[in-house]
Amino acid sequence: MSFLLRAALPADLEAVSRLARSSPQAPQWSLAQYESLLVNSAVPTCCLVAELEEQIAGFVIARLVAEICELESIAVAPKAQRRGIGAALLNSALQWAASHGALRLQLEVRASNLPAILLYQQAGLQREGVRRGYYSHPDEDAILMGIEPLSDHSK
């Protein structure tokens, strides 16, 4: 079964927020925070969704600050996992970052989120450090990861 990647629309944000709430690894932002990122952001922002069977099955949000792209959030619905959606979203965010002049992409990920860490490593991101006690509910360290240069992703 194939999926479609596209730019998120304001009408998608409620589904994005629901998907994030169903994913304990994703940031638990309010709908207003998602709206602010998509509609009112002062910096270039990439917000893509993956559609599977006409439903939002995943999303990625990345922001460009100077020449650094921050991967803010990426999530895939549990029923849609293991279909390449996460990799496609991540690769699209990397391409977006490169096409917008970013020199690097960086992120934080929960130390226990081994599937995400593996996904990031497969895309070429390297472990760069640890932020002790970065996450709460539950308390957990963040693994810092990044990739540069992004020139290979500018296709």
Automatic annotation (TrEMBL):
Taxonomic classification, please?
A: Bacteria, Pseudomonadati, Acidobacteriota, Terriglobia, Terriglobales
Q: Which GO CC terms are listed, alphabetically?
A: cytoplasm
| Superkingdom per UniProt | Bacteria
Q: Which GO terms describe its molecular function?
A: protein-N-terminal-alanine acetyltransferase activity
Q: Does the keyword Acyltransferase apply?
A: yes
Its Enzyme Commission number(s) read 2.3.1.266
Its localization reads:
Cytoplasm
Concerning NCBIfam families, the annotation shows: rimI
**Which protein family is it in?**
Belongs to the acetyltransferase family. RimI subfamily.
Q: What name appears for this protein in its UniProt entry?
A: [Ribosomal protein bS18]-alanine N-acetyltransferase
Query: What reaction(s) does this enzyme catalyze?
Result: N-terminal L-alanyl-[ribosomal protein bS18] + acetyl-CoA = N-terminal N(alpha)-acetyl-L-alanyl-[ribosomal protein bS18] + CoA + H(+)
Q: Which organism is it from?
A: Acidipila rosea
Q: Which keywords does this chain's UniProt record carry?
A: Acyltransferase, Cytoplasm, Transferase
Major localisation? cytoplasm
The answer on whether this UniProt entry bears the keyword ATP-binding reads no
What this protein is reported to do is described as: Acetylates the N-terminal alanine of ribosomal protein bS18.
Q: Where is the N-acetyltransferase domain?
A: 3-150
* First-tier enzyme category under EC: transferase
Matching entries from InterPro entries are given as: AcTrfase_RimI/Ard1 (IPR006464), Acyl_CoA_acyltransferase (IPR016181), Bact_Acetyltransf (IPR050832), GNAT_dom (IPR000182)
Q: Name one Pfam family in it.
A: Acetyltransf_1
